[in-house]
């Protein structure tokens, strides 16, 4: 018996509904069925995938039949052929040489940088007025990525680079789901702004590459140094363009997603007094322990002593997953759990919608970090909760991203609570390349010390 169900609305109505409110459209499709056909053309049929077992088939068991397709083509305009956009053998080779960047011993070293950069921000926060949290978190995570992976200080250029990242993300998001994709070579105002932003980011990247080649010993142990030392099977160094593409990928995929998740975390905690109190109690307990012992614990050990802060981030990623949609296209006819799909079928998988399934989570729209106690996500089907994707294309930096978000959250929560500035109303999700708070969120830091 088929598990594919036709959507009851027309193709035209679906198109305008999705363009107007992608997240609402996907949530409305969740109860319709496990796989929902949008009744598009037979040449390229489109389906929304709601069932965890179908997600697992596409991302893991039969991933060889699928490509990222349209989304990769659009993102390639900015990041080139990096780990995020490459396919097949090229992706496997890139993942092989990129994996050591996120080995445990390297992540432990990155933890100290996360704490240092976060404490630097905390030293600048005052109760004098509201802080634009999206910009603050973007600049913080951008600085962390630059120091951790490129061994580059960005203190003077953070605002300019963060603004350039914002332009590339908005232009990419607007293109991915556009019915018509204009050539990037056309000098439209949007393409001109996009290319200018790319040049801004490339200037920092190529300066870092040139500096690393001059002072190779300084860059040992960071991603840039690793890329410069990487050799192919025939002994050839990586082309500079490929190094640029990987650095650009990490800049865009490696910090904007974490920054967005943190803004959502502060917003959710403000509306969940009990969760905020538990988070503060955990931070106070760690501070008391350090005072008793007369010494500070390492940043990585501090991370390990913050299980509740980790649960807060996990719950934030459930309700507001940065990767709100995952796209796949079949390269040939494929059978998934008894249902056959033709070549060129498009599949839209939405962690945002799947994570809000009441049948799995119960009161799924509520923010309850304690869901992740006692085994956490192991209590649910494998792909009922997957904020970092899955399979061979799952996020290579997921452990670093979790450590970074938890340490930032805990370090700032130890010193502050954040209140939304008056007059903003409820936060509205904005589905760009990753999930943002629409128009940002101004919050006032209130000292706890």
From TrEMBL:
<dbReference type="InterPro" id="IPR001128">
    <property type="entry name" value="Cyt_P450"/>
</dbReference>
<keyword id="KW-0560">Oxidoreductase</keyword>
<feature type="binding site" description="axial binding residue">
    <location>
        <position position="395"/>
    </location>
    <ligand>
        <name>heme</name>
    </ligand>
</feature>
<keyword id="KW-0503">Monooxygenase</keyword>
<dbReference type="InterPro" id="IPR002401">
    <property type="entry name" value="Cyt_P450_E_grp-I"/>
</dbReference>
<dbReference type="Pfam" id="PF00067">
    <property type="entry name" value="p450"/>
</dbReference>
<dbReference type="InterPro" id="IPR017972">
    <property type="entry name" value="Cyt_P450_CS"/>
</dbReference>
<dbReference type="InterPro" id="IPR036396">
    <property type="entry name" value="Cyt_P450_sf"/>
</dbReference>
<keyword id="KW-0408">Iron</keyword>
<dbReference type="GO" id="GO:0020037">
    <property type="term" value="F:heme binding"/>
</dbReference>
<keyword id="KW-0479">Metal-binding</keyword>
<dbReference type="GO" id="GO:0004497">
    <property type="term" value="F:monooxygenase activity"/>
</dbReference>
<dbReference type="InterPro" id="IPR050196">
    <property type="entry name" value="Cytochrome_P450_Monoox"/>
</dbReference>
<dbReference type="GO" id="GO:0016705">
    <property type="term" value="F:oxidoreductase activity, acting on paired donors, with incorporation or reduction of molecular oxygen"/>
</dbReference>
<protein>
    <submittedName>
        <fullName>Cytochrome P450</fullName>
    </submittedName>
</protein>
<comment type="similarity">
    <text>Belongs to the cytochrome P450 family.</text>
</comment>
<keyword id="KW-0349">Heme</keyword>
<dbReference type="GO" id="GO:0005506">
    <property type="term" value="F:iron ion binding"/>
</dbReference>
């Amino acid at each position: 018996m088929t598990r594919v169900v036709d959507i009851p609305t027309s193709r035209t109505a679906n198109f305008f509904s999705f363009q107007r409110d992608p997240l609402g459209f996907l949530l409305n499709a969740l109860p319709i069925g496990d796989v929902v056909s949008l009744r598009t053309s037979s040449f390229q049929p489109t389906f929304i995938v709601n069932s965890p077992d179908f997600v697992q088939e596409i991302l893991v068991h039969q991933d060889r039949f699928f490509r990222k397709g349209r989304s990769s083509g659009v993102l390639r305009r900015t990041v080139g052929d990096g780990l995020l956009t490459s396919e097949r053998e090229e992706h496997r080779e890139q993942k092989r040489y990129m994996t050591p960047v996120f080995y445990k011993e390297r992540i432990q070293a990155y933890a100290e940088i996360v704490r240092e950069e976060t404490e630097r921000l905390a030293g600048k926060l005052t109760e004098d007025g509201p802080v634009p949290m999206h910009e603050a978190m973007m600049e913080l995570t951008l600085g962390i990525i630059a120091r951790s992976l490129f061994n580059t200080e960005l203190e003077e250029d953070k605002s300019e680079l963060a603004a350039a990242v914002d332009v590339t993300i908005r232009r990419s998001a607007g293109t991915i789901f556009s019915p018509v994709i204009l050539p990037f070579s056309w000098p439209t105002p949007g393409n001109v702004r996009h290319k200018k932003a790319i040049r801004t980011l490339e200037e920092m990247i190529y300066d870092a590459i040139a500096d690393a080649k001059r002072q190779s010993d300084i860059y040992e142990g960071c991603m840039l140094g690793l890329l410069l030392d990487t050799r192919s099977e025939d002994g050839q160094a990586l082309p500079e363009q490929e190094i640029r593409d990987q650095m650009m990928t990490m800049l865009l995929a490696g910090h904007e997603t974490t920054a967005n998740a943190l803004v959502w975390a502060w917003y959710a905690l403000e509306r969940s007094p009990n969760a905020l109190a538990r988070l503060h109690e955990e931070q106070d307990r760690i501070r008391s322990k350090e005072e008793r012992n007369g010494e500070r614990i390492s940043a990585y050990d501090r991370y390990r002593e913050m299980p509740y802060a980790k649960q807060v981030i996990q719950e934030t990623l459930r309700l507001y997953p940065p990767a709100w949609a995952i796209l796949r296209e079949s390269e040939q006819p494929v059978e998934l759990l008894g249902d056959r799909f033709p070549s060129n079928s498009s599949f839209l998988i939405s962690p945002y919608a799947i994570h809000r399934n009441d049948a799995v989570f119960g009161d799924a729209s509520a923010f309850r970090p304690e869901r992740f106690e006692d085994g956490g996500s192991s209590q649910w089907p494998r792909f009922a909760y997957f904020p970092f994707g899955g399979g061979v294309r799952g996020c290579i930096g997921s452990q670093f991203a979790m450590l970074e978000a938890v340490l930032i959250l805990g370090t700032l929560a130890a010193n502050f609570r954040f209140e939304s500035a008056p007059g903003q109303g409820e936060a509205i999700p904005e589905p760009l390349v990753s999930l943002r708070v629409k128009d940002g969120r101004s919050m006032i830091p209130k000292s706890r010390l």
